[in-house]
Fold 8-oxo-dGTP diphosphatase.
Amino acid sequence: MIDVSCALIISQNGQVLVAQRSLSMHLPLNWEFPGGKVEPGETAEDGLIREIREELGVEIQILKKMLPSVYDQGKQVIRLLPFQCKLISGEIKLTEHAAFQWLFPAELKKLDWAEADIPVVQNFIDEMML
């Protein structure tokens, strides 16, 4: 099983950052919450902060751990570890993704999501509706 952390970066007005996978990535042009593999010896939180710095060029603060999502891709099983975060510094510069956008929770279902992210999207929407 591969642990992958992802960030639901929430803006002050309640929108969340989503990123579109590039054509060179697995699952090209699907949408996801940005993040990446947790390296050996790294916590999920430390890995997420590193990945967001590398992929987006920004610094985040982790606010809350969310329910994990386990997805079997056939060749490997991914455990997606989502965290609600806020942007604390920097401007987004895409190094791996094709695009990004800020969306309100109610708008998230209109996107073509990577399969592992779908339960995370639903959990986030459910939580925001409370």
